[in-house]
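Writing this down once: the sequence line spells out the residues, with the fold written below as integer tokens. I am pasting one below:
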Amino acid sequence: MIGNTISHYKILEKLGEGGMGVVYKAHDSKLDRMVALKFLPHHVATNQEEEARFLQEARASAILNHPHVCTVFDIREEEGPASDGASSGRRQFIVMEFVNGTTLREKMSGSSLSVKDAITYGIQIGEALQEAHSNGIVHRDVKSENIMVNSKNQVKVMDFGLAKLKGSLRLTKESSTVGTLAYMAPEQIHGGDIDARSDIFSFGVLLFEMITGKLPFRGGHDAAIMYSILNEEPEPLPQNRDDLPGDLQRIIHRAIEKDPEDRYQHVDDMVSELRRLKKDSSRVSRPVPGATPAAAPRPEDDAIPATKSGTTKRWFLWGGIGLVIAVVGIAAYVFLSGEGTSSDSVAVLPLVNVNSDPETEYLSDGITEGVINSLSRISGLRVIPRSSVFFYKGKEMSLQKIASELNVRTVLTGKVLQRGDNLDIQVELVDVQKLSQLWGEKYSRPLSELISTQDQIVREIAEKLKVTLTGGERTELERSSTTDPEAYKLYLQGRYHWNKRTEEGMKKAVTIFEQAIEKDPTYALAYSGLADAYITLGDWGFLSAKNSYPRAKAAANAALKLDNTLAEAHTALAYISYAFDWDGTAADAGFRKAITLNPRYPTARQWYAEFLAPMGRYTEALAQIKTAQELDPLSLIINAVQGLIYIWGGEYDKAIDQCRRVIELDPDFFPAQLFLQWCYLYKGMNDEAARQEEILVRIRGLGEKEVEKVRAAYAASGLVGMYRLELERLKEQARQGDVNAEGFSDVFAALGDAERAFEWLEKSYQEGGYQVFLTGMKPWWRDLRTDPRLRAMLERTGLKKEQ
């Protein structure tokens, strides 16, 4: 096999061989990286059960995505010489991450590890098992040979070949005791049913081995080892290491209890206790009571003091609360490690919906957004806003890259699983600078108990992070938005659908926000959400101005009547004052009020910039949109509006660069593509503007036939042909009852038909809406800007542009 090339993998050397496969180091010529290839041995390739187990390993490992689990890239089948030199034939192999390091067994070499390394490795192994167990996978063969330690002294758990997946094939009775005997749980030896607690037993055996250099259950032959596991107690740890904390012995002995009911029921609890020991580390050791005085500790041991014994109280908090507690982990880690400064920046990445059910997606998204909003009220903590973190939803990117792009030190990830009326949440907090996990936990809580605990947790965060709260912030943290859990659940659903920014999503959001209000008529946030939904329906043309903005205004006023401190509601009302009421004074005051209440609310600054620029206050507008962009660096709409502000300031080249940056993030983001077309029109780049029209038609979902029509119209008559085609579309929409007065006025202006352009502009004015005031700032109206009828129309709005 050495030197052969299989597919695009060149075999370099043999790494090892076991009962379930032969492993080779290989070079991946396509991606120019080293990988490990694991082949099913030829002598078992014809055994259907062994082949099934081999494939089960691939499926088990491929499910997992964790820094301490060896990653499976692919499973392939090729024809060629067998891996053991036998005759050619069909070969199946797994393509895995190549781990440059040694096994934990080789690293120990028959002796114990330092306390520091043992606990560090233990935490990392436990985190890998957390990932497996949360995905319904039991490893079943946790042992030192299956743990690799790489060149960075980080653990990788290998070989899920014996893994048992829920819902997967069940191995035969004879194979139910496969694995390495000395690490087996009693129930494995008996051949009974096994679960995650069996892995916990093996994990405890491995910890014992790392601390002592010996296995807890030993014998001269298999029968003696089995007898020891089933009947004997391991020797006490202090006889081997007298510098150990008492709690470490308690943790290990609880893990290797013979009755599964007496062990840790979840590996999460065991890992949490190990982390607590690590956080309490110091250079001064405290011997276990009754132990022989220890010799001077070795410098590399970094001994860990004993902590108060007793059973750890496990708080089961609802999923969103679990995320909030993660931030407490930041503060605890930093202050206990003696660094003296808090981690003042965090990105809460979108939680993964484990149910894979679109109907429950609102929970994972809503919990994420709710935690972000709660934490953002604390002025001493920089929390990345929703739109920036949701840019990473579903994307495979390293946490280091995400943290670098968002300029944060810590990143929180998690998963949500709904079980009836309960949620299971697993979260992990990572210090990206140190490439280490600070904290992780799994929570289970009924949906109905969120509100009663969330305020308490947020206050604890402020205390742990040592943030100085103003009186207003303290009041804000103590206030509950609603006491009705069903209303809150509906609010999360409403925000989920509103954030889709589709016509269906926004209209559905209106219905759901109204249901939340019906459940709790005093729920100010639900009224604010309803206002936002109606505003966007009007802005995007899905409802007429007269049918959207008055309803938005009523909802915003209702929210402020209930809670006059809501920055979101003040922002909505200010926008309506400008966009529908044409009251610039009220709009300016409203935006300033919102920013005073929450200076870090990016939407307030974005909408304020959109108001300031058309009013002739370009410098102020640019300052506000740049602040919004700093607060929410990956928000598509904020970055696109920054390009629009450049257009209104006549800086077309800057606008082009800005729009292209947004398009790099999302080529299908309509506003950025539209504003880029405006730039081309202003600069007379007609060919580029026509190509943009093709892109816009595709994004609107009009189909390739319409794209071909655009291309043919431009080829025949230039921009005029393209505008005539748009006019035909508007007429067809009007025949179906959807009359777009603004669209008609713009296209007639572009065609140079001033009379009909102003006729339709009058109809647009009668409908209401801020687009009338923006008419002169659109590229299609360039030739009519000096027409006195346009100036007269703008004066009728009552908005006064500063020169």
Observations:
- The domain at 315-480 is CATH 3.40.50 (Rossmann fold).
- The chain has four domains: 5-98, 103-289+299-307, 315-480, 482-599.
